[in-house]
Amino acid sequence: MATATAEAAEDTGAAAPAARVAHVSKSFPSPGASGGDQLVLDDITLDVAPGEFVTLLGASGCGKSTLLNLVAGLDRPSAGTISTDGRPALMFQEHALFPWLTAGQNIELALRLRGVAKPERRPEAERLLDLVRLRGAHGKRVHELSGGMRQRVALARALAQDSRLLLMDEPFAALDAITRDVLHDELTRIWRETGLSVLFVTHNVREAVRLAQRVVLLSSRPGRIAREWTVGIPQPRRLEDSAVAELSAEITEELRREIRRHGRH
Amino acid sequence: MAGTDTDPAARHAEASQDLAGLEAGLDALDTVQTGRTPLREVLLRKVLPPVTAVVLVLVVWQVLVWAEVAPDYKLPAPSAVWDEVSEAWLQGTLLDYIWTSVSRGLLGFLLALVIGTPLGLLVARVRFVRAAIGPILSGLQSLPSVAWVPPAVIWLGLNDRMMYAVILLGAVPSIANGLVAGVDQIPPLYLRAGRTLGATGLRGARHIVMPAALPGYLAGLKQGWAFSWRSLMAAEIIASSPDLGIGLGQLLENGRNNSSMAQVFLAILLILVVGIAVDLLVFSPLERRVLRGRGLLVSR
After folding, report:
1. Which residues of A touch B208 (CB under 8 A)?
2. Distance from CA of A91 to the nearest CA of B (A)
3. Where are the domains of chain B?
4. Backbone angles phi, psi at A102, to 5 degrees
5. Domain B100-246+278-293 has CATH 3.40.50.2300
6. Per-residue model confidence as pLDDT tens digits over A96-150
7. CB atoms within 10 A of CB B117
8. Contacts of residue B29 in chain A, CB cutoff 8 Å?
9. What number does CATH give the domain A15-88+171-224+244-265?
10. CB contact under 8 A, A182 and B22
């Protein structure tokens, strides 16, 4: 096993992973009066290679959002270590754009907090808006944008942090199917253009297969890594592609088996 | 699709073209249309109703005077009050009365702002401070600030400092409480998003907490101004002294001493007008602007 990891390190040019999660567990105080802690994540080990797109898939209660918060540094693990290449950017299910700023100002705030000098902020924000195909939306208020446009601004704001790692917490779950499909294409395109590493959390199997190079299935209560799939289907993929459908069916079957386990005791 | 046998780069470029068109269509379909209401409609909806109400009050007042329901030392005619207004205007004292009170009120309010804002931030963000003085601060809001006039006169004497002390005791709790309420209502998501962007500590307070709390803070400021103005009037009516200059409160008190009901009415009218004017000219536009910018104002 040790030799295998050494070889893998050579393969990637000895580059440090974008994120390394090693034997991480997380427990929260139990909500009941009984005391004791509830184990949410149990011994998770996961690497995200530079430029890799990984989806974390699981039913509710598998702690996938908790894991993402840990990687984002918003919370500390109870055991194990997490290291990332710089501070990761994070995108939420809700757009989380600040309503007191315009779309462009939201991006400029991220640039400012990153330490970008004032004269460079405006052109950089324009460039990022252009990247998510929202040229001319700089002065738009958040409430004037549609759900899909808001998530694209949120993506541009996350990209403005200039992190090597982008964490996404079900960012398209609240969108309608057509918009979501378009944003899948958009995200794939931007990921290819920027060479970012992405860790994408979802409960949607087809979304996971549609986007990822690697799908990691988490079991629930406590969250453990149940299985992994490498997705070799070439991009651009479509949700309707038979290869996507086939792999989705296989993963769904596995996911159902995981969920059924909980009904038995 | 012939795309399967062309090279991957070309396929990506083609897909990207398709996508751009699709996306432009979706954006156009989803975008909210906003427009401005025409001036005529604004006049009809916003100006006409209050003007009608004022005219109606004047008519009823005049009818009561004609019906002689009360002797004129108790109920002066609208024209008598108007004579007071024009006389004070011609003597050049009208603006002096107003300015004496308004300058006190504004300076007091600004002082309250400077003290109340950091106090509110402290109470909102530091758990120990909140537990220590939070309840007292909200309790102070229900204490009528007139109650502070007697001790303030004893401690500070009959002077401007005493007026400012009374204003501060009335307005600071309102401003601080408004800010606390504003901070408490910030959606936790904004704070998390701010932290991932690197806005922590003072930078977080400046870029996330203060702007996010602005609607509640503005409501607190508005109430703070109302409290400042009320406390000041109470102080001016109770504590009159020749070296204090004649503000609106003293004007009212002088009217009572001279048994001039028209002057009393004039003073009440001016106090009301100043209160309404500051609200209409300062706070309402500010509040509307903030809420509209955030899409929180539903315009019909």
Report:
1. 98
2. 8
3. 100-246+278-293
4. -80, 170
5. no
6. 899 999 999 999 999 999 888 889 899 989 999 988 888 888 888 888 888 888 9
7. 19
8. 146
9. 3.40.50.300
10. yes
